[in-house]
Amino acid sequence: MVHSVPRRLGRRRALQAAVATAAVLGLLLWWLLPLGGSGSPAGKVVFATGVRSGVYAEYGRLLREGLARDEPDLDVRLHTSQGSIDNLRKVTAGRADFAIATADSVATYRRDRLPGWQGLRAVARLYDDYVQLVVLRDSPVRHAADLRGLKVGVGEDGSGVQLITRRLLSAAGLDFDEDVTAVREGLDTMPGLLRDREIDAFFWSGGLPTEAVERLAQQTEIELVPLGDLLGPLHAQGELARYYRAAVMPPDAYPTVQRDTAVPTLAVANLLVTTDREDPRLTESVTSTVIRDRDRIGRVVHAAQRVDLRTAVFTDPLELHEGAARYYRQEKP
C-alpha cells in the first residue's frame, strides 16, 4: 500500500504527457496539412472587378488566366461593377467570392457598419491607385480649387473614385453638391465626355498607366492637374484620410501627356478581399497565384510589379483570411 500513491502519480503523469503530445501533433498537422480538406479547389468562382476599361478589369482578366493554369478545375467568372464600394457590397452579399477594393473604401464600409462588414477579410495588398485629375490642355484648371462652377466627372455612385473625389473637393475648399456640377459617370464614359467638351474635367483613381486615359491622350491633348498640395488638408479630415499618401506619377506613366515631367498626386492601396465564409483551400490557392504571377501581370498592370511577400501582408484595415495567412506563413522569406 505504501507504493500505490507514487504508482498512481506515475500513471497520471504518463497520461498527461500523452495528452500534451497529442495536442502538439494536432497543431503540427493543422500547420502542415491543407486547410478545408484534401484535393484541389473546384467549382465556380466569381471575381468582382470594376468598369470594363479600368485597371481592375484588366487585373482580373490576367489573374483568371493564372488561375486557369494553376487550378484548372475552377470556373472563374469576372463581373464588372461600379467600383470599390459596389464590390464590397457584392462580396458581402455572396454575389462575388473575391473583389478588389481600395483601402479607404474598405475602411469607410467598416466605419459605416454596412451589411456584412464584420466578415470582410483580406487576401493581399495588390498595388496602389494613383489619383488623376484630367483636363483638356487648353483648360484654365491648374489646381483642384479651380474646378468651382465647372462640370466634373466624379465617378459612379458606389465607386471608390467618387469617395475620394468627395474628400479631395472638400480638401480644396469646395462643396461636392454646391460648388461643382457633379457628373456621376464612370471611366467608360468620362474620357469621351471630356473629349467632346461635355464636361470640363474628370477624376480617376487607378493603376498607372490607365488604358482609357492613354487612349484619350491619343485622341486629344490633355493635362494632368497636380494634387499633391491637397494631402495636408485631406489628412486633417480625420482617421480615414490616413489611407492616402503622397505619390508622384513618373514622367513615363503617360509620356505624351507629361512631357518628361513628374506630376505630384496622392495614392491609395488596393486590396484583394473576400469574406470569412470563403474556403481556406481556395483562398490559399488564389493567394499563391497572385504572388506567383506578379511579373506576368506586372508586364500589363505595371504597378503590380511591386507586389511581393513582404508588402502583400500589409492589408490594413482588414485581417488576413486564414487561407491567405497560411500561404504567407509557408512562404515567409
What does the secondary structure layout of this molecule look like, with pairings?
Elements: H1 4-32, E1 43-48, H2 55-70, E2 74-79, H3 84-92, E3 98-102, H4 103-111, E4 120-136, E5 151-153, H5 160-171, E6 181-183, H6 190-195, E7 201-206, H7 211-219, E8 222-225, H8 231-235, E9 244-249, H9 255-258, E10 263-275, H10 280-292, H11 294-298, H12 309-312, H13 322-331
Parallel strand pairs: 1-2, 1-3, 5-6, 5-7
Antiparallel strand pairs: 3-10, 4-7, 4-8, 4-10, 9-10
Helix pairs in contact: 2-10, 10-13
List its traits.
single chain, alpha/beta, ten-stranded mixed β-sheet, 10 strands, disordered N terminus
Description:
This protein has 13 helices and 10 strands. It is globular, with a radius of gyration of 24 Å. Strands 1, 2, 3, 4, 5, 6, 7, 8, 9 and 10 form a 10-stranded mixed sheet that branches. The protein is of the alpha/beta class and 333 residues long.
Write down the overall mean pLDDT: 89
> So how many helices?
13
Characterize the overall form.
globular
What percent of residues are in strands? 15-25%
Largest sheet data: 10 strands, mixed
Reading the helices and strands in chain order gives: HEHEHEHEEHEHEHEHEHEHHHH
Number of strand segments: 10
Poorly predicted residue ranges = 1-9, 18-37
- CA radius of gyration is 24 Å
The N- to C-terminal Cα distance equals: 59 Å
Output the structural class: alpha/beta
Assign a percent range to the helix content.
25-40%
